[in-house]
Amino acid sequence: MAQRELSLLNSIQHQIMPKNILKEVNRCRTRFKQRFEEVKVSNVRYNEKCNFLGIGVMKGGTTALDAFMRNHPQLQMPYQKEISLFDAKYYDLVKGFAGNVHSIYFPKPEEGRIRGEVTPNYCFKPKALENIYNYNPEAKLILLLRNPYLRCFSHWNMRKQKGVKHGTFIEALENEDLFIREPEKRRFLIEYIARSLYVPQIQSILELFDKEQLLIVNSEELLNEPNGALNKVTEFLGLDPFENVTPKLVHKRDYDSVITPDCYEIMEKHFESDLDELGKYVSWSLDEWRSPRLAE
Predict the structure, then answer these.
(1) Hey, which residues does 218 pair with through a beta bridge?
(2) Structural domain contains residue 214
(3) At 2, which helix (H) or strand (E)?
(4) How far apart are CA 12 and CA 20, in angstroms?
């Protein structure tokens, strides 16, 4: 079975696919080769599934969550964050033995430790959620949510610093706003606004999983009061509490601009109604997430 997986992963790269997908395929294939040589297939035979997955949101603190989880003695995390197996376009080719491919990223299972991984793209991709459900319908899901205005701006700022040219923040918002209203005028793929609309993503999750399988965490709490946020996570997973932890700031980026009133005006048309609905799903007040322009 392992040799078959390796042959399949080798063949995938020869198909025509976007560069980002090819990169994921090559990364998966490289990791498989390393593990295949290291353990001579012994690990893959166990095929132990993940008990939980951190599924998002992008720019919502998932890197910090992953870093914290790696320090808990009852958890076993993969060699790297963002395996992205379930949202990859080649998933249908490997789904027959997805559990085996997934195991490539993990050390050999240990008694008393449960497996989990964090990939922030999952919550935004209904197909990824469907793939996760088919892989393990009893999986527990952790969803970090951040102030949508700040998440949206942070997403654009990250893309800008990586060299993605979507114009200024206001230009990117105007283009996406136009696409949402008039899809035929779409110029390029951007999801700054869409990824900050949390209710549709939560609804997609709950169409497949019971509400008891989903934990929604305030990313600001994880940043400023990590003990409280992480205790909710361990209780949700049925684990011992974390020992005292200190705040962990990762992937902090500098900003050379600010959110202007014109930017807030565009975002408000989408985010304020979503926040009205979001209150049904979260346990904290959303007052501080409202547009500061409306409070004036």
Answers:
(1) 145
(2) yes
(3) helix 2-12
(4) 13
- CATH number, position 270: 3.40.50.300
Tokens at residue 125, please?
């991709």
Look at residues 134, 129, 127, 102 and name the one whose alpha carbon lies nearest to residue 117: 102
Q: Give me the percent of the chain exceeding a pLDDT of 70.
A: 76
- Omega cis (within 30) before 245: no
- Distance CA(122)–CA(142), nearest Å, equals 11
Backbone angles phi, psi at 156, to 5 degrees: -65, -40
What gap in Å lies between CA 130 and CA 264, rounded to an integer? 34
CA atoms of 61 and 248, how far apart (whole Å): 10
Q: What is the pLDDT of residues 243-285, one digit of tens each?
A: 888 877 776 777 778 899 999 999 999 999 999 999 999 999 9
Structure tokens at 29: 């294939």
Q: How many domains does the chain have?
A: 1
| pTM, to two decimals | 0.82
- Beta-carbon contacts of 16 under 8 Å, excluding residues fewer than 6 positions away, are none
In a domain, 85, yes or no: yes
> Tens digits of per-residue pLDDT, 111-126?
889 999 999 999 999 9
* CA quadruple 244, 251, 203, 51: dihedral sign: negative
**By residue range, what is the domain housing residue 116?**
2-289
Give how far Cα 276 sits from Cα of 171, 181, 272, Å.
26, 21, 6
